[in-house]
């Protein structure tokens, strides 16, 4: 498992960036980079389960490890979903089970610095190195408009 980090400076308040990240309509916009129509199902409270899924019901199930509104969100990924059903663990999935995905919003004089840290397997590192900057560019665009 390797940790990747991505950052972007956004000319908007932390509150606006937070809303862009986690409100359903804008979440769907920026995560379309990872899969058209993808969305999340959660109450967005610390300790709660969250599903990151496609329209076909494929994706991941996770928990919200930490949530400090307008500052920090942390997900602990637990397993895979297929057709809306949580899949039992297997050797391949266990390689990334427990991986973390963290979002930190830092107030700056002229806006917000958004930092994302994700744990990935070597197999998916190049995919995320390509996709995450595109997703953060969408977060930036939405937040600044």
Description:
The chain is of the alpha+beta class and 145 residues long. The protein has one domain (2-144): START domain (Alpha-D-Glucose-1,6-Bisphosphate, Chain A, domain 4, 2-Layer Sandwich), CATH 3.30.530.20. The chain is 30% helix and 41% strand. The chain is built from four helices and eight strands, in the order βααβββββαββα. It has helices spanning 14-22, 24-30, 91-94, 122-144, and strands at residues 2-10, 39-41, 49-53, 59-68, 72-82, 85-86, 100-108, 111-120. Strands 1, 2, 3, 4, 5, 6, 7 and 8 form an eight-stranded antiparallel sheet that branches. The chain is globular, with a radius of gyration of 15 Å. The termini are far apart.
Write the layout of secondary structure elements.
Blueprint: E1 2-10, H1 14-22, H2 24-30, E2 39-41, E3 49-53, E4 59-68, E5 72-82, E6 85-86, H3 91-94, E7 100-108, E8 111-120, H4 122-144
Antiparallel strand pairs: 1-8, 2-3, 3-4, 4-5, 5-6, 5-7, 7-8
Kindly state the percentage of residues in helix: 25-40%
- Shape estimate: globular
Write out the CATH superfamily name.
START domain
- Per CATH, the class reads Alpha Beta
Order of helices and strands: EHHEEEEEHEEH
Mean pLDDT figure: 93
How big a fraction of the residues is strand?
35-45%
Q: Which architecture does the CATH hierarchy give at level 2?
A: 2-Layer Sandwich
Instruction: Output the structural class.
Output: alpha+beta
Uncertain stretches: none
Rounded to an integer in angstroms, the radius of gyration calculated over CA atoms is 15 Å
Domain count: the total is 1
Total strands = 8
* Cα end-to-end separation: 36 Å
Major sheet attributes: 8 strands, antiparallel
CATH topology: Alpha-D-Glucose-1,6-Bisphosphate, Chain A, domain 4
Helix segment count?
Answer: 4
